[in-house]
Write a structure and sequence with these properties.
Number of strands: 2
Number of helices: 8
Order of helices and strands: HHHHHHEEHH
Shape: globular
Oligomer: single chain
Length: about 160
């Protein structure tokens, strides 16, 4: 014997709360764009990144993209060029010598956001992309912490 359950007035009223709440429905949020994930990764690594930090070793590595834990790519220089040229974020690149445990040496480019102005631009872009896909902006305090990690002005040699 099953009892038919009528909607209680309080339950009906509570179901309308979502319309008042400004938090996006998780079902409506699209996954992060690659450039958004890359920008956020650059913002969280103020000392810079090299291809050693971002080279995917397995297909599973790519599944981690967008989780905030890691950013993997097969062409870091292309991602940097896109951020610089298409989105106007100043990114510097300095050669770094690397010697493997077997004694082989090579040079990688260490890419980093140049200064606070460039970091602020990257935060604005990340927030724009988050809005486009239905996600909330980065918290203001966190955004400011990200920006403050960078030098006041570009330290050009």
């Amino acid at each position: 014997y099953l009892m038919k359950r009528n909607n209680h007035p309080a339950q009906v009223a509570d179901s309308d709360i979502r319309m008042v709440d400004s938090t996006p429905d998780p079902m409506d949020i699209k996954p992060p764009y690659k450039v958004e994930t890359f920008s956020l990764y650059m913002l969280t690594h103020p000392d810079g990144i090299t291809a050693l930090d971002t080279n995917a070793r397995t297909f599973e590595d790519f599944e981690k993209n967008g989780t905030g834990k890691q950013f993997y790519t097969t062409c870091l220089h292309t991602d940097v060029a896109k951020l610089r040229n298409q989105y106007g974020v100043d990114v510097s690149g300095e050669p770094v010598k690397y010697i493997s445990r077997h004694g082989y040496s090579t040079t990688f480019t260490n890419y980093r956001i140049t200064d606070r102005k460039a970091a602020a631009r990257a935060v604005v872009l990340v927030n724009r992309w988050r809005t486009e896909r239905g996600e909330c902006h980065l918290p203001a305090e966190y955004s400011q912490q990200l920006i403050n990690q960078f030098p006041d002005t570009a330290n050009l040699k």
